[in-house]
Specification:
The chain is α/β, with parallel strands linked by helices. The protein has one domain: Vaccinia Virus protein VP39 (Rossmann fold, 3-Layer(aba) Sandwich). Helices cover 27% and strands 23% of the residues. Helix 5 runs parallel beside helix 7. The protein starts with 17 loop residues before the first helix and ends with a strand.
Amino acid sequence: MDDGGAPAPARPRNDPAQYDDLADEWWRPRGAFAMLHWIAAARARLIPPATRPGALLLDIACGGGLLAAHVSGHGYRHVGLDLSFTAIRIARDHGVGTVLRADATALPVADAVADVVVAGEVLEHVNDPDRVVAECCRVLRPGGTFVLDTIADTALARLLAVSIAERLPGGAPPRLHDPRLFIDRDRLVRTAAGCGVAVSLTGLRPRAGDALRWVAHRRADVRMVPTRPTAVLFQGVGVKERS
């Protein structure tokens, strides 16, 4: 039935179906997921080269496969997991060697098999981040590396990552985040430590000059730089203790 051209109602905040709506944006130059590309490049800098043949990198919530190009020379079998059928198809087409549809709170992976587990831009999208962290640590081999990035549960993060970023070029698409799910940093560190992984945190922000040149179409991307404050976007890295 013709509805007279009325716009579709807005999805609730943090609705996973938004990623299907925005599937064409994953690899569109200067698209809605531009900042995710910049963060993926920064994430890759925390991933060490493989130290053994057949080393496994699990990319939790891999999305459209943005990490693949940055780790292709690191020597890993790259396995991407995501809830979205659309995303994993795109990830496969952009260099992720194996893709699986999976829930980050119940990974279909045996204990202690991954040399690296990456949880990029996912913890702030789940109702039980402790469970996701525990799953990431469970599947990690002793001596393996856990890498994450997410958004802090602070008033500053709610202002910058939602109120402001959703209105800026390169910022998150509107309603992609629910600030009620942003991450308690101390709790995150405690949860990982309880699973045998001592995680250290570092802040992350766009390089201001790069961002201005990107907006002016004078740069193709924006470099993300580490910061001491972790009150907005932050990274974490830790190594699982050996028994």
